[in-house]
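Data availability (excerpt). All sequences and predicted token strings are deposited with the supplementary files. A representative entry, Smad nuclear interacting protein-like protein, is shown inline so that the format can be inspected without opening the archive.
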Amino acid sequence: MPRRSRSRSRSRDRRSSRQGDSRERSRVKHGASHRSSSREKRRKRSLSTDGRQQQHGRRREPSLEKRGDRRGHVSPRQTADTGEYPQRRPPIAAAAERARQQQHQQTSHYGPAGTVEEEAEGEKPKPKPVDAANFGLSGALAKDAGTGNVYKGIVLKWTEPADARPPTRKWRLYVFKGEAIAQTLYVHRQSAYLIGRERKIADIPVDHPSCSKQHAVLQFRLKETVNEAKMETVRTVRPYVLDLESTNGTWLNKERIEAGRYVELMEGDCLRFGNSTREYVLLHDKSQGVVS
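Structure token line:
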């Protein structure tokens, strides 16, 4: 091998070795500086943390062991004596305990001096007395004992009897004013007809000022008669009139009837209410001279 080529190879080897040494020195230098800067950052961070804790009145407690070794560390959930975790209560038992505490708080009451007096354990609170059911009369119906019921918000002065029945005959009231027939009223569609000035409830309204708001009642009732010849009971529905204690009374065939008492009516009877001159003649469809 020529001398010139050997010298070139030696110089190349020395140059490469020098470059490798410089790279190694640079790597070591930069790694050391990096480690030193990391340690410096951690030191500054710890100093700043200690300063903030001292500023707020708190003192940082040193750790028990090193960071990597946690054998001496005691968890907040561990007991200081044994270092074991406490046994966790089941959720059902915890809920029962909370319910018992709430019930205990509800049963406590305040004493006279603002202190809380709790009932002794084992003593059950006394239940509040419950009023027994009262099935007695309230008095509302007693006020209407003589009247019976309320219709359209107005207390009626009478109530239908138990033997009230709709008529089997087609009864009519012919209203005469003087010698002329002013009106014909068909009174066979229901068992009772109220006569008075209260048009809200009256079946046969009268406008004369001498008549009362509830003046009289035309009532149909079931009547039983005994036929001695045939030895049988005959039942018929008959018309009655009842004066409701009106001021000027009810007149039957020009005679005033007793108030509060049913009076049986016959075919052809004439009724007059108060001081009105109108006459109400009672007939039916089979009466003589009546046109059906």
